[in-house]
Write a structure and sequence with these properties.
22% strand, 6-stranded antiparallel β-sheet, 18 helices, alpha/beta, 8-stranded antiparallel β-sheet, binds fructose -6-phosphate
């Protein structure tokens, strides 16, 4: 989704901003632009399409100046054209800004500003901000930005600069992430960005802004201020913000010899699963512990009901979590799409724990659902990957998945880490209730074996490659699974459709005969997830039903299951504790989707229309 990077210092801003934009590419975008203060005024370059298009323009018309802002846009209001790309300027061209989020009262504000004589050049909601700031400007940029923002309904992460108050960049945040980066080279250079990846090449010292905060960046340092304080009429007092040290380094956000980030991330999974477990398993006690849940300890003992809310792949992880928690911890669980939950009138009785799962920690719907649940008295727990993200900061307690930056738009390693964390939370809750120490120890041992087992699944690339080569030109796929492998079927189908644009559906295997069976013929590859678990025989019956109708079956099954004679292709995975099996069965599906997408020459890491972090509704 949209990305912002800004720089103020003593070097030329252009190459630094361009580098920052490249690091934001993974979030998904359809146009890019940059504005720099060149000593005389604001100069803007922008282009629809890839950042390379912008780079071509900058090649012939470079920008010189050491104060600049840049943006990658993912269109919401107004088609993705060069004209609609950010930065946007006011009527005079003296104020430029880049914005992430949505201005909901854009229409009203636009009409009002047009009546005052402002000339609009784009179809975007963002442009109203430039004109509002122009209208409020009396010589001080931060004051004008604060005044403009009081009129705005909606969400923003914002970076603004002006040739009329030139030695600064003003940034503000409400509902869209924004951070400051303090250069570690002792020069006093400052960055601002919507994502830490944009500044990681220069610093790991960052300050995360909270909603309702504004910061002023100058060559002498930065000040963070509360937007609301302006409303009193007095200049606000600066607020102290903690500096965080990002644990990732640049290697984690580079491809490191892999042809795509997605492939790198699939292959990182033995390590990321290990990282998710590090320091959390207590072998002798047969349980797990989490530093981030200490403050929830009392609530965890009294919890009577769990609601898990999430979107997309994280929602699939939530569905697997439902099986885990109900089966082992015997706590009733409901899984809710965050986008639905936030607008319903949910019933949240006492002793309800709400778990929000999010890789990015910034997904707008998940954040809103979590806030709604808290408003209604639930205790909120987060399972989040990105450290310092909004969901991570707003939950009452949480567990980081520690999978490192996930750059490929299609989520892979984050999913298996979410499942690993859910399994450990289940273990902890189950041991506080009815699970015996012996069963707890068995689960701990099974968790510890997972990284090695994932490695053995990854060794099967060649088999999966054969399957991909046989079916990559097909236009429909069906994915079937039962029990906790039903969500895996959903996830396999989602991976295929999002990166290869093939229509794919996931179904509970037994539901097939209630409708989808009508689709079965030799042109319909059916991926059946059939590990040797408690429902194995049932899935085998479903496989027979497909075969008798001429369907082609690709089975993901346990080593030694003996399914060879019944299916067209067999990919085997090691056996593990039934609760953990989805962590192994999903990996061949990730690889299959990846290989098919490559054969179809799709843009694997940045599939069309998709964004990595969906920070708008
Ligand atoms: C699919 C995918 C998306 C995300 C969804 C939620 O591969 O990545 O479906 O899972 O947008 O994102 P997070 O987990 O960041 O809240």
């Amino acid at each position: 989704m949209c990305g912002i990077v800004a720089f103020i210092g003593s070097r030329d801003a252009e190459p630094l901003l361009l580098e920052g934009l490249r690091r934001l590419e993974y979030r998904g975008y359809d146009s890019a632009g940059m504005a720099v203060l060149n000593g005389k005024g604001v100069e803007v370059r922008k282009r629809a399409g890839r950042i390379s298009e912008l780079e071509n323009v900058l090649g012939t018309q470079p920008l010189h100046g050491s104060v600049g802002i840049a943006h990658t846009r993912w269109a919401t209001h107004g088609v993705p054209t060069t004209r609609n790309a950010h930065p946007h300027t006011d009527c005079s061209g003296d104020i430029a800004l880049a914005h992430n989020g949505i201005i909901e009262n854009n229409d009203v504000l636009r009409t009002k500003l047009q009546e005052l004589g402002h000339q609009f050049r784009t179809e975007t909601d963002t442009e109203v901000l430039a004109h509002l700031i122009e209208e409020a400007f009396e010589g001080n940029l931060e004051k004008a930005v604060a005044a403009a923002l009081t009129q705005v309904d909606g969400t923003y992460g914002l970076a603004v600069m002006s040739s009329r108050d030139p030695e600064k960049i003003v940034v503000a945040r409400n509902g869209a992430p924004l951070l400051l980066g303090v250069a570690e080279n002792g020069t006093g250079e400052l960055f601002a960005a919507s994502d830490v990846a944009a500044v990681l090449g220069h610093t790991r010292k960052v300050i995360y802004l909270d909603d309702g905060e504004l910061a002023v960046l100058t060559r002498d340092g930065y000040q963070t201020l509360e937007l609301a304080a302006w409303e009193t009429g007095n200049p606000p007092e600066p607020i102290e913000k903690e500096i965080s040290h990002v644990a990732w380094n640049l290697d984690r956000i580079e491809r490191g010899g892999y042809s795509h980030f997605m492939l790198k991330e699939i292959f990182e999974q033995p390590q990321t699963i290990r990282d998710a477990m590090r320091g959390r398993l207590l072998e002798s006690e047969g349980t797990a512990r989490f530093g981030g849940l200490m403050q929830l300890s009392g609530s965890l003992d009294t919890v009577e009901r769990i609601i898990i809310t999430a979107c997309g792949t994280s929602w699939h992880a939530a569905l697997v979590g439902e099986y885990m928690l109900e089966e082992c911890a015997r706590i009733p669980v409901e899984v809710e799409y965050a986008s639905e939950f936030r607008y319903r009138n949910p019933i949240i009785p006492d002793n309800t724990l709400v778990i929000a799962i999010s890789q990015s920690g910034e997904t707008a719907d998940t954040l809103a659902a979590m806030r709604e649940a808290k408003r209604r008295g639930a205790v909120a727990m987060g399972i989040v990957n990105v450290v310092g993200s909004t969901i991570a900061r707003e939950t009452d307690g949480g567990v980081y998945t520690h999978s490192g930056p996930e750059i490929g738009v299609a989520s892979t390693k984050a999913f298996t880490s979410q499942l690993t964390v859910l399994a450990m939370i289940t273990l902890m809750l189950a041991r506080r209730r009815r699970m015996s120490i012996d069963d707890g120890r068995k689960l701990v041992a099974a968790l510890q074996e997972l990284p090695g087992q994932v490695e053995s699944v990854l060794e099967q690339q060649a088999v999966i490659d054969e399957v991909a080569r046989e079916y990559w030109q097909h236009t429909n796929f069906l994915y079937l699974g039962r029990g906790s492998n039903f969500p895996v079927a959903l996830e396999g189908a989602l991976k295929l459709k999002e990166i290869s644009y093939i229509h794919a559906e996931g179904y509970p295997a037994a539901e097939m005969k209630h409708g989808p069976i009508a689709l079965i013929d030799e042109n319909m590859p059916v991926v059946c997830i059939a590990p040797a678990d408690s429902v194995y025989k049932k899935v085998v019956s479903n496989i027979e039903e497909i075969k008798t109708r001429g369907g082609r079956v690709i089975a993901i099954t346990s080593e030694g299951s003996g399914l060879e004679s019944k299916v067209d292709h067999l990919i085997s995975v090691p056996s593990t504790h039934e609760m953990l099996q989805p962590i192994l069965t999903v990996i061949p599906l990730q690889i299959l989707a990846y290989k098919i997408a490559v054969l179809r020459e799709c843009d694997v890491d940045q599939p069309r229309n998709l964004a990595k972090s969906v920070t708008v509704e």
